[in-house]
């Protein structure tokens, strides 16, 4: 039929015309490619006012000139930085921007897969070349990190990013470790018993439940966990095994610092089993909240904020808010304290407690894309950031306002800073521009230690953390002979403390998601996760052993040849060789 | 006509109120009460929670706010972008549904005719797109190529047509006796005139219903702002601003400094307040639309 | 289907006219269709050209033409992977079917009975109240259901235990036996007000003369409902059923993610969740596109089948 055919043709023509732009090369790929080779060799850049737009996932919308740090940057570099906080799926946004070619000039890529895609697509400027030309300070200040940055760029020795918070302090948030959080009044009532292994905690909590069957009219719960959320069950609760020589990790393989190899947590060690057994005992003794598997994180938090729960595990970063809420409700006797826990089997094995230093935060790669017009000006700021002066400003703030320098050369936070941090200051925006997610960390703020042993980032400084300690913690720690927030781990008489570097444990994986070892690895992970709840709810010791035996049998059946472990160890060797190569050969 | 049927109902001569009627009324009453309580009480719960001091809530049920406080609302509305965001939300909630219904109306009317060449083709062409999904990345690329990112038009243009609405309108049109259109066309009216003079007035119930759905959808949505306009403060909608605030205040470890009302509110009460704030404007518009689809409309004007 | 009165027969004869005359006669209709067609061509059909990414070894940002051809590799991977997913498929279909029928029939019943309420003010209030749950986001919805149905903290269980009906709370939210019923209840609760609006609009369009005639014949209210209202609502009901049939294998990721927890996984996990965890989040574009393609084709297939069946047995259809 003529009519229909004509219409069909017209439609096809419309579709073709509309589809063409989507298929053409992004016009940005060709322009500004010769970036690093143009212009003078010195880093003299013009000083016209310019703007920088930067998106931070989970951050807050802000304009730099609204705070004193940003004002300083404006005076020095004539730059106004506009930060957009993104609360959606940031990886998807970055993926979309890469596909459409409209990525901003400077980005933080919070996903290593996304970063690798950007590199592969040729969307990024060669950071190594930029550094050599505009930011030579970076090459000295971060000389330990550069091989790592070359490694994650995975581009024959070229470097396409740098990372902030690198190296990071031991462990994470505020220097405290993710451990047991216990209500302080029951520790006091039981006269500060020795607390370390599972049994000591079970005893403590059982006695606590007998002494306090009800809290403010509601049944007291021994321990709460928001295990309805997948990550709480599979990443948080299982970490009991990591309270020894294995550092944190949610995979099925872990790095063993003794043998310097990757081992299968379930098949090659008893730590994982004993960790799950701990939860099973807690369940059977009626300590673990029977609702934990249907509680979301919020529900568990609410049970803690009313003081109804005697303990929780792992979510130590929520404690400051929870304790503040308790104080406001005039229930500060219920304040929670963080205490270390270790498995009996680990103690018997004389394992050390391990703190990990993350040498480079691969989940926070900072890149400059080919859409950049101001790459030279940006790198000028980065160059300045890689000096003591820059790190001080970005990490500690303005001398005299946020900190002062004592006669011993050590930086001390001012009272105004501490007050604002604790929420007791009059100006709630005093500390804007510093700390997590409001600072300008993306110019290269490190969380490592300076020559005086102080952290470059004020929030990790021990004096700041100790000033933030609440009274209950101070009191209880002093009874155990601890004065600082890190003492329970670093100065505990019951175990030794060791530092491992994240780089030691790195293993080159196969980025092809359909490769055999990756498919098997996903299957193993899912199998493990699906059986955890059943194991924890076993009805008796015998039942637990039987369920565990079944579990292991099924686990072995998925990967009988041990391909996942084998490939991981091959990748491990490959990584260490690569790192050595980059160290000796330097930047390409 | 209304008076006639009322009179009939009132004159018991035709139909006496029997026991059957009584049980029927009882059943209806119980059904309605159950629905009303199940639907309305949770909303009251949300309202009371948002007005409560969370430190004082220790039972799951709430029949009134405990420790009355408007702190949550103050916090949510403290952001300076709220008034402008409100305006943007109102604009998109009014503009997009009107445009959408106009386009859907045209297409629905056209397709309700059985016998014009190509009808079958167009019908299929349009209907199967309901199940098309090309994925997030091709859609994102399309928006960028059409220069819809970072603009108000991204709230309007992608929403200009929806198959579901068209089908609803078309079904409604098909239940109108064709004699109506016939007589108008015999009088010499073209299709456009027939549509707007004769058919459109009869479509008020379904258009009101669909307009309500679209308004609610437009008012609540923030996903497109998130993806396309996140960097531009002037284009943020109210639901985006509120959602963003709640997300941001729970993501940083230094939230203590930011949350002035920390002691009396928590994330949940903030989320509850957001729900209330989002519902209230819709509830203001609702009664106006309700009278179109909840009460009867006479079509008795057609007589053979 | 539009009824064909005698008057139409005459016009059918005159339709056997040359194309040019047809076009002149119907050009207004084509104009009316133009905006919708252009819109769909740009927003629905053009992105389909992205389907080619399912067949190529494509990485983001790469030039699509230069990527290597990999044929049906991704489709094979999907089918071998989801062979283990029969449980999630079962969950998805059961929950969707139960939810669909329950929502539609209960909403229709609600609309019908609401119409029978005598007091106008009461009627308005109930109808407005029924609409509220629609505004509740999924996250708040879980919070509310938690407050009511949680094993020891939930109101319902606390009531039942305190009255001695049961000794321990029923694990509504955490037991595989209750998953489907909970999701059903959630679905109906959320969409009752919303769905019933469509039915109310349909009832509003029913000719009141029919009711008056029935009154004269002495019909009871149940009879009027059975013989007038229900048949008039049937087309709407069937249309809605057909339209939703295409989404039989899809599900709302957000809601299921919220209600799924380690203890009710076996009956709560849906196909979407399975696919997502299996590799969609790895930015594997060819795989994601292949999944999109399969999902679209299956939905269209289901829709066409159900539409055809409805046309044959009910006389009503969407197309």
Q: What can you see in these coordinates?
A:
The complex is a heterotrimer of chains A (588), B (304) and C (319). Chain A has 24 helices and 18 strands. With 588 residues, chain A is an alpha+beta fold. A 4-stranded mixed beta sheet of chain A has the order 9-12-6-13, with helices on both faces. In chain A, strands 1-3-2 form a 3-stranded mixed beta sheet. A 3-stranded antiparallel beta sheet of chain A has the order 4-15-5. Chain A is globular, with a radius of gyration of 27 Å. Chain B has 304 residues and is mainly α. Helices cover 68% and strands 1% of the residues of chain C. Chain C has a two-stranded antiparallel ribbon. Chain C starts with 5 loop residues before the first helix and ends in a 5-residue tail after the last helix. Mean pLDDT of chain C is 81; it is low at 1-17. Chains in contact: A-B, A-C, B-C. At the B-C interface, helix 1, helix 2, helix 4, helix 5 and helix 6 of B face helix 1, helix 2, helix 4, helix 5 and helix 6 of C.
The CATH class label of the largest domain in chain A is Alpha Beta
Q: Tally the beta strands of chain A.
A: 18
- Cα-based radius of gyration of chain A, to the nearest Å: 27 Å
In CATH, the topology of the largest domain in chain A is named D-Maltodextrin-Binding Protein, domain 2
What is the fourth-level CATH superfamily of the largest domain in chain A? Answer: Periplasmic binding protein-like II
Calculate the terminal CA-CA distance of chain A, rounded to whole Å: 64 Å
Distance between the termini of chain B: 18 Å
Main sheet overview of chain A: 4 strands, mixed
Strand content of chain B: under 5%
- Give the low-confidence spans of chain A: 1-43
Main beta sheet of chain B: none
Total DSSP E strands of chain B: 0
Secondary structure topology:
The complex is a heterotrimer of chains A (588), B (304) and C (319).
Chain A: H1 2-23, E1 50-57, E2 62-63, H2 68-77, E3 79-86, H3 90-100, E4 106-109, H4 112-121, H5 127-134, H6 136-141, H7 146-153, E5 162-163, E6 180-183, H8 184-189, H9 198-211, E7 214-215, E8 218-219, E9 221-223, H10 230-236, E10 253-256, E11 261-264, H11 265-268, H12 271-284, H13 297-305, E12 309-313, H14 319-328, E13 336-339, H15 344-348, E14 353-357, E15 365-368, H16 375-385, H17 388-396, E16 403-405, E17 411-413, H18 415-422, H19 462-467, H20 471-479, H21 487-490, E18 497-501, H22 516-536, H23 541-558, H24 563-585
Parallel strand pairs in A: 1-3, 9-12, 14-18
Antiparallel strand pairs in A: 2-3, 4-15, 5-15, 6-12, 6-13, 7-8, 10-11, 16-17
Helix pairs in contact in A: 3-4, 7-24, 22-23
Chain B: H1 2-10, H2 19-50, H3 71-77, H4 82-111, H5 119-127, H6 136-145, H7 163-174, H8 178-186, H9 191-199, H10 204-220, H11 223-228, H12 238-249, H13 255-258, H14 267-293
Chain C: H1 6-14, H2 19-45, E1 56-57, E2 68-69, H3 73-82, H4 86-115, H5 120-131, H6 138-149, H7 155-162, H8 179-204, H9 208-216, H10 221-245, H11 253-259, H12 265-268, H13 271-279, H14 285-314
Antiparallel strand pairs in C: 1-2
